[in-house]
Write a structure and sequence with these properties.
heterodimer, A: mainly alpha, globular, B: alpha/beta, Rossmann fold, Alpha-Beta Plaits, six-stranded mixed sheet, four-stranded antiparallel sheet, 29% strand
């Protein structure tokens, strides 16, 4: 078994060891979803749509965004913890890529959350609220591809933020700011449809809209085939672009360690 | 195998040292002499400020990943196993990372488990182990695969005598199989038993490298000879000894082995009296530090 597969498997099995913690995290995701759902149901005040946006579309956005958010949760402290305890030295000496390991462990975690968190949350949400079904088979396929690309964007942002730990003792504040941007600008808290046009245009220029909102739009059939391809291409560009920045920091960070020590 | 040419980094200054292939070399020196820095430079975790480091014929900073399978590094304080893993899980991850075949891994695991005695806590999480248990588990992680070069920085810390002697035995066996081993320790008696060659670092400089005997001869040439005599008391005035004393029929002599040999002293004594017993005591390497010589 390749080392990366072993790392992914270890994370998958490691997650399943903490059953109580896992149950609580499912509960917290459901709670979060129902709070958002009730807030928007009250705001809609019995109306079926506001500004052309149906409650069903808003509900679908919450279910998918929170569901994907529970699956795609990169460990922002993967590198910082290893710098703090010195085990980064061990990682740098091993004949496997540390970045590859990060991806493998995040993938193992995502797979676990997909099976044991996303699917239960989705099932409960579908049974209790009126979320939409995918617009069609093509939309469903493209939703999966776009969701994976959204994970790529999210991972690249986390990867790049983590690289600052080569220079900073504590990256908690940066991570918090990053999470606020993701929560607000990715559409998971406030669907981007409700934002004023100018703000919406500005948000579209950031990578955050690519994380959850693009897959949701594809799922609901709000994008034409051409727009779907363009949006997916934008997701890919963000993923590669941000990862490239993180990679430069990774190389500089390693050089810093070799010159100054850990 | 490891070659330092006028290397300076932190406390190390103009260190020139060659660690030959297939030998166990001990690196000794007082705290802060630069032993850990030396190992970090040799494995490529640190880059020299001046001079050149070659390990396995290449620049270790550039090639450390490429020859990761050829080198095993153990530095006290830098964990090889993850705290959340059990010892057996951690070692199994090392098997995957170093692509060990299942049979070779099982053989190595069983051998290390028996000799380092971690079988009893193999299913415990690493973070829950005591210092001594953790050291044994970490050493197993460093020794479970067979590289060409092993670097161990103070591997004896927290080990009991059984584990220490098992470790020295395993180091000797690996050297016999052609592996090069570089070890640092503050336990001079232990390191002189393990390594055929010792390098001495003093205030960042490599002051000597050679066999235990050559170090003794250079830094601690004064041996003690105890002779039990029967017959008349010899006249020692002409003997080139540093100090002598007589208690009953036991004569104690301190002599500089660089100026006179034990055989010469014995021959001179035999001309004057009868010798019933004779013992020669050479100073241990631990006296290098306690005597303030390094």
């Amino acid at each position: 078994m390749s080392a990366y597969l072993a790392y992914g498997k270890k994370t998958f099995l490691g997650r399943s060891a903490y059953r109580f913690d896992h149950l609580m995290s499912i509960l917290s995701t459901l709670l979060q979803f129902f709070i958002f759902y009730e807030i928007y149901r009250t705001l809609y005040g019995g109306a079926q749509q506001v500004d052309g946006i149906t409650l069903k579309a808003v509900t679908t956005n919450f279910v998918l965004s929170l569901g994907l958010g529970s699956v795609f949760s990169p460990d922002d402290y993967f590198l910082p913890n290893r710098i703090a305890d010195g085990s980064i030295s061990t990682e740098l000496l091993r004949p496997v890529s540390f970045r590859g390991r990060m991806i493998a462990e995040n993938a193992g975690n995502a797979l676990f959350c997909l099976i044991f968190k996303f699917i239960p949350v989705l099932t409960v949400a579908m049974l209790t609220t009126g979320m939409s079904a995918p617009a069609g088979a093509w939309e469903l396929i493209m939703f999966v591809i776009s969701a994976l690309l959204g994970f790529g964007v999210l991972f690249s942002i986390s990867f790049t933020v983590q690289m600052t730990s080569f220079w900073l003792i504590n990256i908690w504040s940066i991570t918090t700011i990053k999470n606020v941007f993701i929560n607000v600008l990715s559409g998971s808290m406030i669907p981007l449809w409700f934002m004023p046009d100018k703000i919406r245009s500005a948000v579209d220029l950031t990578p955050f809209a690519s994380i959850y909102f693009t897959p949701v739009q594809i799922y609901l059939g709000q994008l034409s085939a051409k727009d779907t391809a363009v949006k997916c291409m934008i997701q890919l560009i963000w993923t590669l672009g941000i990862y490239a920045v993180g990679n430069i920091l990774w190389k500089k960070g390693q050089r810093r360690l070799a010159v100054q020590g850990g | 195998m490891v070659n330092f040419e006028e290397v300076s980094k932190r406390v190390l200054s103009d260190v020139t040292l060659n660690i030959p292939a297939g030998e166990a070399v001990g690196l000794i020196g007082a705290s802060g002499a630069g032993k850990t820095t030396f190992i970090k430079l040799a494995c490529g975790l640190l880059a020299p400020e001046r001079g050149r480091v070659w390990t396995l014929g290449k620049d270790p900073v550039r090639y450390r990943k490429k020859y990761g399978r050829d080198i095993s590094v153990f530095i006290t304080g830098i964990p090889l196993l993850e705290g959340e893993d059990t010892v057996s899980q951690g070692l199994d991850m090392i098997r995957a990372v170093y692509r060990m075949d299942a049979e070779g891994y099982r053989r190595s695991y069983d051998e290390l488990s028996q000799r380092l005695g971690f079988g009893a806590f193999a299913e415990k999480r690493v973070r829950d182990l005591s210092l001594g248990q953790r050291m044994r588990a970490e050493l197993a992680a460093a020794l479970i695969y067979e590289p060409r070069l092993i670097m161990l920085d103070e591997p004896d810390v927290g080990l009991d005598e059984n584990a220490k002697s098992a470790l020295s035995e395993m180091i000797r066996e690996r050297v016999q199989r052609g592996v090069t081993v570089l070890v640092t320790s503050h336990d001079m008696a232990w390191i002189s038993r393990v390594c055929g060659r010792i390098a001495v670092l003093d205030k960042g400089r490599a002051v000597s490298c050679g066999s235990v005997e050559s170090l003794q001869s250079r830094f601690m040439p004064v041996n003690t000879m105890t002779v039990k005599i029967s017959g008349r008391i010899p006249d020692l005035d002409d003997l080139p000894v540093r100090k002598f004393s007589l208690e009953g029929d036991v004569l104690s002599l301190e002599y500089d082995s660089n100026h006179v040999t034990a055989a010469e002293i014995a021959a001179l004594l035999l001309k004057q009296t009868e010798i019933r017993e004779m013992n020669i005591k050479k100073p241990g390497l631990e006296q290098l530090q306690s005597g303030g010589k390094i």
